[in-house]
Amino acid sequence: MSMVRENETGLRVDGQLERLKLFGLSSPALLMILFVLVLPVGWLFYVSFIGGDGQFSLENYERMLKRRSYARIFSTTFEVSVLTTGLCILIGYPLAYFLAQLPARLANLCMIAVLLPFWTSLLVRTYAWLVLLQKKGLVNDWAIALGLWDEPIKMVHNMTGTLIGMVHIMLPFLILPVYGSMKAIDQNFVKAASNLGASPTKAFWHVFFPLTLPGLFAGTLMVFILCLGFFVTPAVLGGGKVIMVSMKIVSNIELFVSWGAASALGVVLLILTFAILLVASRFLKMDQIAGGGH
Amino acid sequence: MLDWLKKPATETQITHGQRLWLYVLAVIIMFLLLAPTLIVVPMSFSDSQYLEFPPQTWSLRWYENYFTSPDWMLATWTSLKTAFLTMLVATPIGVLAAYGLHASNVRFVKVAYTLLITPMMVPLVLVAIGVFYVYVQVDLLYTITGLVMAHTILALPLVVIVVSSGLKSYDMSQENAARSLGAPRWKAFLTITLPQIRFAVVTAALLSFLTSFDEVVVAMFISGGENPTLTRNMFNALRDQIDPTIASISTIMICVTTFMMVLAQMFGQKKNK
Fold it and tell me: Which CATH superfamily is domain B69-272 in?
């Protein structure tokens, strides 16, 4: 009897050791993240509380509250993020719907339109828009030739250019999870609804659309969070007129070598991002967000 | 054609004709998604300073500019080296982590998983300035080692997500069978599990290559000196003026990406068979 019990405990201890060993396999990756992510960000956190005299102070955060320019930067950041996300939903949802209804072969072909830009360098796409939207660019030339407008319009180095570029870059992040959730829907639900007499519109809004909400939510969240910290596209297409938080952080370091101010802004941005994620994770699982809602 | 318009498009009996607006809209959106990137390709072969489309006279002068410039060549080498090494580092440690977390179910697996995908959520600018500061202290600034380490943590979330989902559709009892027949765990993993999740691993490797190759913000801060990346130099050039040489570099980058995607697709197709 006692030997059986001893064996049992022995097996359990062995099993636990084994699982710990397996867990240990993730240690190289975790150590890497500790050294290259947690340590640097932790240090920034510390620096944000150090004042100009080298003592602990809240001056970096106070400055953010006092100066009007900072309020403007935060409101611009939100404006760009909200508009980009909204436009992505308006443009991305119909396209995802279209793709989800195509026969597999055709859908795969059309999917290239989403995936090719997705994997093309961000910088290349931003550059392409810069070329297309400039005053002597293709869009102005063609629009004037077609008689849409008479004078070349300034579409780049301002808010318009930033939004066009951002929407183009963020669209796949919205389309992919939405498409995934649409493909997972059992078509019998929609069939049943129309059998029971629902009009196509009604079947869509009452049956189909609610079932796509998890994907839509995941995509929206991803786009919004990426927008909040975005740098390259607004920096190039905004031409200094659209200043977002991330750009202010960079200029604080590059121009003013002011680590305190930059860190404090970074900390606020990070906390904002995590707060949104935390609230969202009450409704969605974390890997659903990261894995694109599948 | 007219018949087709009257045919039902879905189970709800809505006809193709009634949904014509959706098709038109979708085609326009797909065009707008693809065109801007692709239009750079013919433009890069233009002889003019002003990037016309269609080009009036064709020439390879911007390619010549690129291939004969020591600065651009140095940057290209740095980028390729970094991307390749990032792939070699991020893939194995990411696969190990994904496998370890999948097989072990100790309490902190969830925490570890979340930590592994955090680099995706942290604003890049923050990573960039933080890493910049730390690298100055430990003398890793402007080195390939430093770049590879930073790009590795950016690629890790993708590797972990892709490989984890690969493992989810794999039946672990196959590995257990091998082990009960006497194979040590590592051997069972290498000979039984790894071949079955190879598509996920290859996809993960390609994604980590591209992540590093395309990365701008972190490279802007921690690459430079003898090791500037292509993206860093491109970004700096973009801020100054519209240099047509960038069109030729962009074209080459589009080719690299497309090539990678075709590779990934080929592996994915085999999986479906």
Answer: MetI-like (1.10.3720.10)
